[in-house]
Each structure stands twice: as C-alpha cells, then as structure tokens.
Design brief:
With 375 residues, this protein is of the alpha/beta class. The protein is built from 12 helices and 17 strands. The strands form 3 sheets. A 9-stranded mixed β-sheet has the order 12-11-10-9-13-7-14-17-16, with helices on both faces. Strands 1-6-5-4-2-3 form a 6-stranded mixed β-sheet, with helices on both faces.
Length: 375
C-alpha cells in the first residue's frame, strides 16, 4: 500500500491531470452544492475514459469515466481532480466503483475538504492495495474549486465582484446612465462569467434602475443561467418586474428582512420567487454576513456580484470579497459620475483592502483585469 506526495511529478501525470481539471471546469456553475470534478482513466499510455461532474452534481466524474471505459478500466490509472468520495449519498461511493473496476493507481490533485470524505477515500484505496499519489497540480485544483472549499471551510460561497467602469472608476453618469459603458465583447464575457457561477447578486437599486435579466444570453447557453438574487430589505421589487415574471423559468431568490409578512411571501412564491429572511445590521441594511452564510447553507459555492456601489461597499467592508473582475472602458467621465463602491470609511493607506493582479486581457476595446484578495 503506497501513498506519495507529488514531488518532481512525471510530465505525463501533469498532462493527464491538466485534462482532468479542464473537464472539471465544464461543471462550474452547474453542479452546486457539489464540487466540479474531472476524471481521466489511462491504461498503457492510452486514455480509455473521461468524465466530469454532471449538472446537479450527479453522476460524479469517476462514474462517468468508468462508464465510458467499461472493461478497459482494468489496470488503469485514474487521474481525479479531487479525492473520490467514500461516503454513501444519493449515489454509491466513487472509491468503491474505482476499486471494483480494477483501477491499480489513483493520482489525485487535492484531498477533499468535506469532513465526510477528507482522507477517507485515500485510506480506503490504500487498504484495497491501490497506489495513491496526491498533490499533482494542487494549486490549479484549489483555484478551480475555490467556491466549494470556501463553502466547506468558511460557510459561504467564494465571492467575485464584477465592475464595468470608465478609466476613472465610474459605473454610470451623474444621472445614472450606464448602458453601455463597456462594449459588446465585454458584455458577452460577462455573460460567460454568469454561466460559470452558481448565482449572481444585485441590490434593489440596480434591479429597479437597470431592469436587468441576469441570465446568460450567449447563443445556446440560456440553460446555464445562474440563480438570480436580489437584496431587497423592504420588498420594493414589483411583482411586475422581469426578474419576478420570469422566476418560473429562472430560479430567483429575494433576500429581505426576516419579519416579512405571510401575504408578501405568498405573493412572491406564487410567482416562483423564494424569499430568504435575514436580520438588519447596525447600518440599517440587510446583514451581508448573514446573507452570504444563508447562500452557503443553500449550497451556493460561487457568487458573482453585479450590484451597485452600496452592495459592493458592504462586501468589501465585511472583508469577504475573494476576487474582482474589473472591465475598464477607454473613457473618462471626469469626477461627477457614480463610483464603483460606496465610501469605505478608511482613514489611512494602511487600511486599504489589498488585491493582487492575476490576469490582464483585452476584450474588444476594453480591458479585463482580474484580482485576487491578498490574505
């Protein structure tokens, strides 16, 4: 029984694990509350099976790969982007399926952070005589499933703020005009981001002013639209709003103060909207910490925030922003527009919330800068 960490990993192992990670990426935004996992089965240097977590979280990647491989899985190595599950859920444990199929070696990027599984799947495979290696492309795997790890370890989804601003940081003119600061290609890229997240959240001000649909409207990808979430403490969202009238087609949640009435609940639920009640914070607004915990409890792992300055400011002040996707248009408004965030009440430069740039790319005439928080 052998288990080892990946040190000086064979390039072939890295290549096959990279494929498993790309397969896993196909599940982002579609498999919550489960992680997005990829699996590649290789025997005698040949790929005999591939799989990734299916919509809704089942079947799992390993099951998909084994079904495709059939008898060719005998004697193969399984490359899995996250430790195979060992607990009995709605589907049988993937570890037992791998063992029964005759896998002789399992290469794993990361151990599962879920207490039901962490280390137990590895232990079971070692007990069955498999060779197990961990840590192959671990950093890539951790980044891919950042949301799942956040929900397990922090009780909330990984949170990405998306901004679309001018060069001087404004999201709208002083009169509130914002459509469109960035170009068509940037907006398409934003729709792809929606498809890769479990949920997209805005505040009631953005909902009323911009009348957004919050769906993924890329050709052929409407079914990839995320859960739509509106922060609305006083339930000002009209029942005639497009987010309400289309709630039976696209899942929609409204977060509001916890003492909403039965009549309000029935009115929204009849339209297909689910109300989530949370407490009002000291600032008179919905508790943003309770809100993201409530989303985590409902299984959301990746949250994209497209709200205005109030929502963005609240998340930044709470210290719970993990990433920023900043689309910047080559234009200047000159200081009298609407800023990307509300005042954060910081007195010194040392108090600034610090991010590190992890990517820069041209998107048509605009630029997309990606940032990760410095912990």
């Amino acid at each position: 029984m052998t288990k080892s960490k990946a040190t000086g990993t064979d390039p072939r192992d890295q290549r096959h694990m990279a494929v498993a990670l790309e397969l896993a990426r196909r599940g982002l935004g579609r498999v919550w509350p489960n992680p997005a996992v990829g699996c590649v089965l290789v025997r005698a240097g040949q790929v005999v099976g591939r799989g990734w977590t299916q919509p809704g979280g089942r079947p799992h990647a390993e099951t998909e790969a084994l079904d495709r491989a059939g008898r060719r899985a005998q004697g193969a190595t399984a490359y899995v982007s996250l430790e195979p599950c060992v607990h009995q859920g709605e589907t049988p444990p993937c570890v037992e399926a791998l063992i029964r199929a005759g896998i002789t070696r399992c290469a794993i990027a990361l151990e599962d952070p879920d207490p039901r599984a962490s280390g137990r799947g590895i232990a079971r495979m070692l007990e069955a005589g498999l060779v197990v290696q961990t840590g192959i492309l671990a950093d890539h795997a951790r980044e891919l499933n950042e949301g799942f790890f956040s929900r397990i370890n922090k009780g909330r989804p990984a949170i990405t703020l998306k901004f679309a601003t001018t060069l001087d940081g404004f999201i709208a003119t002083a009169r509130g005009e914002s459509q469109w600061i960035t170009g068509a290609l940037a907006r398409q890229r934003g729709h792809l981001m929606r498809a890769e997240h479990d949920a997209v959240m805005i505040g009631i001000g953005t909902a009323i002013t911009d009348d957004p649909k919050l769906t993924c409207r890329l050709t052929g990808m409407n079914q990839f639209s995320p859960v739509r979430i509106v922060l609305d403490s006083n339930l000002r969202l009209p029942l005639t709003h497009a987010l309400v009238t289309t709630a039976l087609e696209h899942r929609t949640w409204v977060v509001t103060k916890s003492d909403y009435s039965k009549e309000q609940r029935v009115a929204f639920e009849d339209c297909g909207v689910e109300l989530l009640g949370v407490d009002i914070g000291a600032d008179g607004r919905l508790s943003i910490e309770q809100t993201v915990r409530a989303l985590g409890e409902r299984g959301i792992t990746r949250l994209l925030v497209e709200g205005g300055p109030t929502v963005s400011g609240s998340l930044l002040q709470a210290g719970i922003v993990d990433r920023i996707a900043w689309f910047r248009a080559p234009s200047i408004l000159g200081g009298d527009g609407v800023t990307a965030t509300a005042p954060l009440r910081l007195d010194t430069l040392a108090d600034a919330i610090t991010f590190r740039r992890v990517g820069v790319e041209a998107v048509g005439k605009d630029m997309l800068e990606s940032f990760s928080v410095v912990s």
